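Hi F.,

I've been meaning to write this up properly since the lab meeting, where we talked about keeping a consistent format for the predictions we share between groups. The idea is simple: the sequence comes first, exactly as it goes in, then the structure tokens exactly as they come out, then a line or two of notes. No screenshots and no reformatting. I'm using this chain as the first example so we have something concrete to point to.
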Amino acid sequence: MGIAERRERERVLQQKMRRRQILDAAKRLFHAKGFSSATMEDIAQEAELSPAALYLYFKNKDDLYVSLNLQLLEYLSQELERLHVREDLDADEKVESLKDLLYDVYNFDPLILINLFHLQASDGLRNLPPDRLSQLNELAGKSLRSLAAIFDQGKAEGRYKDYHSTALADIVWMIFTGTVLWEESKRMANPHKDYLKSTLDLAIDIIRRGIRKNVE
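Output, unedited:
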């Protein structure tokens, strides 16, 4: 390896470490202060950087936050792909497995997930750089394709009715989104309420029974 190549490799590594430093600082502040209250200046201070240095890596707070969202979406995408390609499970068993999978995604980082759902429902996505938006859409699309493939498998096995698989994948995502946000709103009123897992389980059961050709 030549000197120039080594220096370039060190520069890229340093940039990755700096981005990681900023993301870790942002995550700590978002958990401590909330997404709305934390500012770019707060994050720069937490990361021990100047605001100018922070803006070299992230356009704005939404851009920074989506970078955290991408980590969560990457986890979701990997888990759904892993479930989709399993050869030891039929489609109905895979849909049943979505109960634990979705709850695990929620537990990966509840705050990041909740704010991702809020970001999707707001104008925040319009403020993202094209490359970040492309990454987010790519991971979301990959996740939905894995879900749709599970329903396609169920139809091929003769287990499920001939509903549009992409529509079914969208419904699962909508149920996941709505359940998380609704249960979170109830928990704000009463912190002792925690019915997310049981509600998700019931919702998946309803979907399974609704699309089966032979309901027990």
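Notes:
The chain has nine helices and no strands.
The first helix runs from residue 3 to 33.

If this format works for you, I'll send the rest the same way.

G.
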